[in-house]
Amino acid sequence: MEKTQCILPARVLLLCLCFSLCYSRFSIPLKIFTGKFNSSVDLDLTPLRKTETSGNGLSLASDPSGIVNFLDMVNNLQGDSGRGYYIEMLIGTPSQTLNILVDTGSSNFAVAAAAHPFITHFFNRAVSSTYSSNGRAVAVRYTQGNWEGELGTDLISIPKGPNGTVTINIAAILSSDGFFLPSVNWQGILGLAYPLLARPDSSVEPFFNSVVRQTGIPDVFSLQMCGAGIAASANTGLAGGSLVMGGVEPTLYRGSMWYTPIMQEWYYQVEVLKLEVGDQNLNLDCKEYNSDKAIVDSGTTLLRLPVNVFRAVVDAISQNSLIQDPASGFWMGTKLACWATGESPWRFFPKLSIYLRGTNASQSFRITILPQLYIQPITDVDGTLDCYRFGISSSVNGLVIGATVMEGFYVAFDRAQKRVGFAVSTCAEAAGQPLAEISGPYLSESVSSDCVSGGLLQEPLLWVLAYSLMGLCALVLLVLLLLLALPCRRRSRDSEITDESSLVRHRIK
Which of 150, 310, 417, 501 lies in the 20 to 30 Å Cα band around 344? Predict the structure, then answer.
């Protein structure tokens, strides 16, 4: 009669622990500024001529196979850094036209497949005779916003892209929160990163992988974003740019293309060696710049820096600038700084330089942005004041070379040779003067030979760990359920298990 208690309290604790572990999530960072202002720049591209200047076949005005003509892809983007750059795509049969955000920081191709108050139209799967659902659910969480939907496939063509039609994995977005934003003119996202970032797992072939496999174009794409130094105003059009698939278009950049190795094929992870504000070296351990990663991401609006690096940059800019220190809210991105109309503040601020390791590991090169790229015009007030925001922010997810920097350069993602290239963009200029610079090579003798190791656990490793824990949880849950199914027997003449002696009714309300 004494042995009447079960070990159920312990089981309950284990069960709660398992549920808490299994609910863990990991996110893919994507940050788009939600401003209500437009940007514009007029590009005169009519004088462009075909150029064939490459020993490796990548810097040609057209691919020798005839699948792509790079000049046809010039100016095929619309948008600005505040709300992203997007490309027009034709999806399904008959084709439905959608604008798709270009994002090098994720890997899913996802389109709105249901109505949403912030978008004008969506992809109607029922109308497309070639759409096929595979029945798999998919969900992606970004730094800002998330969506859920189902996976399927359909035919896609790009009016200003490679010739032909390809079959692509499509995530049909059925519900979202904070993903589609007011005043944006895109209805989906084109993730251009590697399969390791694809959801729900890496078996979902990303868009560009499918294009390369089915068309045979080189595994290279390049990106020009033309919003550099352009005021964001509700009264102007969009800046635009170019997404060249299959190679590099020489007329979109000046000087030479400088390459840095891709350190890991998930994001486009690179190795940053040091930062300078004006001529001042921040003198931080190079591992600080790469903690927990340094990536090139067109879907991120700002230049994002690890917290310690961000503080050092703000301190250095404050010391080097020729104006009174703005309110802290300006540096933190919560306030705008305004000057009298016609009085440019850019001459008061220093240049900002990032050193990247070269393909020759003993050398580096420097990419430099002028203040016009990180002191960003936003709007005017009553025609008397021009207001600006700070185009740099702190980050807990590593260093992100976003649109603030990318708008100064023509960036080549040479996946075939595992490298990212930078060259000064032809559309990043003001009054005929470039807003970005590249110089090198510099010796890297004073810098660690490995600035990437010793950081935090990277996300793929965390995913493996998470799935392992989930598997362990499932095993423990199975054991607990079996134990719960076994009655707790009372040593008495009456061995009946009543509802009062079972905790089942207290578990299920």
Answer: 310
